[in-house]
Each structure stands twice: as C-alpha cells, then as structure tokens.
C-alpha cells in the first residue's frame, strides 16, 4: 500500500492548504476525510480518460502509479481499514453508485472494477422522472451506513433531470480510548476561540503515559498521540504553543 499511502498523504496536505485558505471556511471548524475523498475519486478515475484523467492523476499524486496497481493498493488500503475493527472499535467504509435507469455503464471495466476493488454495488434510480425519490434513496443509504450520524447528505435541488450518476463514499467511526477518561475528571475551563473571544467548555482530564513531543521550530506546537483500544488507530492532536497560534 506504500504508493497509495504516500500519494494520499501528499493529497491530504494539498487539500488542507486549499481548504484552510477558502473564504467559506474562515473562522469555522473544518472536518473532512481525505481518505473518503481519495477513495471516491479513485473510483471516478476508473471512468476518466484524456485530460480529465491526467489532471486527476496530478492532483491526487497518482501520476507514477499504473492504474492496475492503484486499484490493487486501494483495495488493500480499504481492507486494512476494515481490519481495525477490534477491541470494540468500529470503522466502516461503504461505497455505492446510484445510476439513472437505462443509463449505459461500461460493464467490463467500470462496473466490474468498482465492485472488484471497492466493493461498490450499483443501484438504479430515476433522476429524470423522480429526482426527489432518488435523493431520498441516496440519503437513506448514507444514514444506514453511518448509523444515522449523517443525515440529508444530498440537499434538495442538487439532483435534477440531467443527473446520470452519483458516486457515494461513507465512512463511520466509533472508537474507545486505550486509556479511558473518567467522567468525574471533567470540569469547565476557559477555551480561547480567538484573541477577542473565549468561552467556558467542559474539558476532560487524564494522567497517563502517551507519545508526546514539543516542537519549538516551524510548527511551534505540541503533538500528542491518543491511541484507541487495540492500538491500530490513534488520534493525533496538534496544540499550538501560543494561545493564539492556530492560524500559523
């Protein structure tokens, strides 16, 4: 999986730079899954040709990876994610294509390929005559796969009679800490939203041994690793050294 993982890490950094400079996300919380986007776009890439395929390969750092190797490694990557389901953790990744009834898809390569490498089934809906019904079906599938955490993914008005294919990737994660926080060790403290705003929030506390580093160089932050049970999954927290150092 080395090639796909390296490409995904580069794509993650590029994506974060682009999103954090987007006016739509200024001063807002930003939560997204680079892996989810990469997996969905890898399926899209199977149906891409010409300049579209070239541009996708550049943006996702797949230029040096042959198509067959890319799909094979993506399959291994998906399998590795699913294998972390132990010790009470639950990481679910689901892919599905919703195509217009009667719309012709290349069976031999695209349909069979998305099923073989990405376990993506194809559902037929009718965007032309019942766009709202198609929207409800897609949203219902997403709700089911994310344990009702993601609702109304496709808002009203997105689908219309010109829609032909919707490719959906859903990721759900529920994990338990290797070292549990005790409820009685949670109490209110000040959280600094910005230089001009601070709020009181409930903060958890725990004394235990964790991987931790202080970077006094370019990052100017502390990095803490909080492992989940099983130790195959971790949360990494980057805390700026300065109270208002997040922007830097």
TrEMBL record:
SUPFAM superfamilies: Serpins (SSF56574). Residues 13-248 form the Serpin domain. Gene3D superfamilies: Alpha-1-antitrypsin, domain 1, Antithrombin, subunit I, domain 2. It comes from the Eukaryota. Pfam families: Serpin. InterPro entries: Serpin_dom, Serpin_fam, Serpin_sf, Serpin_sf_1, Serpin_sf_2. Coiled coil: none annotated. PANTHER family: GH10112P-RELATED (PTHR11461:SF211), SERINE PROTEASE INHIBITOR, SERPIN (PTHR11461). Belongs to the serpin family. This is Serpin domain-containing protein. The lineage of its organism: Eukaryota, Metazoa, Cnidaria, Anthozoa, Hexacorallia.
């Amino acid at each position: 999986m080395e090639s796909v993982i390296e490409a995904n890490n580069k794509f993650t950094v590029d994506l974060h730079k682009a999103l954090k400079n987007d006016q739509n996300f200024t001063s807002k919380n930003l939560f997204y899954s680079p892996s989810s986007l990469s997996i969905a776009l890898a399926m899209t890439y199977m149906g891409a040709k010409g300049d579209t395929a070239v541009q996708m390969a550049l943006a996702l750092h797949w230029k040096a990876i042959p198509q067959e190797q890319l799909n094979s490694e993506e399959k291994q990557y998906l399998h590795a994610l699913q294998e972390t389901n132990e010790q009470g953790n639950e990481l679910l990744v689901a892919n599905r294509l919703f195509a217009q009834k009667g719309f012709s898809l290349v069976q031999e390569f695209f349909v069979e390929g998305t099923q073989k490498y990405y376990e993506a089934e194809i559902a037929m809906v009718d965007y032309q005559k019942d766009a709202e019904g198609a929207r409800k079906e897609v949203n219902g599938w997403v709700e089911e796969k994310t344990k009702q955490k993601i609702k109304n993914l496709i808002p009203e008005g997105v689908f219309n009679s010109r829609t032909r294919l919707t490719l959906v990737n859903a990721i759900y994660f529920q994990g338990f800490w290797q070292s549990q926080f005790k409820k009685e060790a949670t109490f209110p403290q000040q959280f600094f939203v910005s230089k001009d705003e601070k709020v009181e929030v409930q903060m958890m506390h725990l004394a235990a041994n964790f991987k931790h580093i202080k970077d006094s160089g370019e990052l100017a932050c502390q990095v803490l690793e909080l492992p989940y049970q099983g130790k195959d999954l971790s949360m990494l927290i980057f805390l700026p050294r300065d109270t208002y150092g997040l922007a830097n």
